[in-house]
Design goal:
mainly alpha
């Protein structure tokens, strides 16, 4: 057993600094991890009901038929579920509508969506973009 009195002071100093540095790095990592939170599904793809209510309230959409509502609700459901099969869903508004025109056919092919399902996702994405543009004014 080595007694501390036989360890040079400079060694104790270096070891102490390394332990201190590791503690500081660990504390910083814990702080960063604690402050980062994942976005919820509702933040990435707001519920269809909220999107439709916002459009109706803003006057951007004077009326909505039940089939249109059902299509948009299906589009949101497919966006959240089918997209998540392969990757984490991205915020819908992270892409422009023109970008979605290129993204949807490619992703639909990969996920084997039929044309009605693609139309539903397109309707949801369009409705959300429409709401965003009315609230941005």
């Amino acid at each position: 057993m080595v007694r501390r009195s036989h360890i040079p002071a400079w060694v104790v100093s270096i070891v102490g600094w390394r332990l201190h540095r590791q503690s500081v790095v660990f504390a910083l990592l814990v702080g960063v991890i604690a402050s980062v939170r994942c976005a919820t599904t509702d933040e990435l793809a707001p519920p269809a009901g909220a999107v439709l209510s916002g459009l109706l309230r803003s006057g951007a959409l004077p009326t909505m038929s039940d089939p249109e509502r059902a299509t948009i609700e299906l589009g949101r459901f497919l966006y959240v579920t089918d997209c998540a099969d392969c990757h984490a869903p991205e915020p819908v508004l992270a892409h422009t509508l023109s970008a979605w025109q290129e993204i949807l056919p490619r992703m639909a092919h990969e996920s084997k969506m039929n044309s009605d399902e693609v139309a539903a996702v397109r309707a949801y994405v369009s409705a959300l973009h429409r709401l965003a543009s009315t609230t941005a004014r």
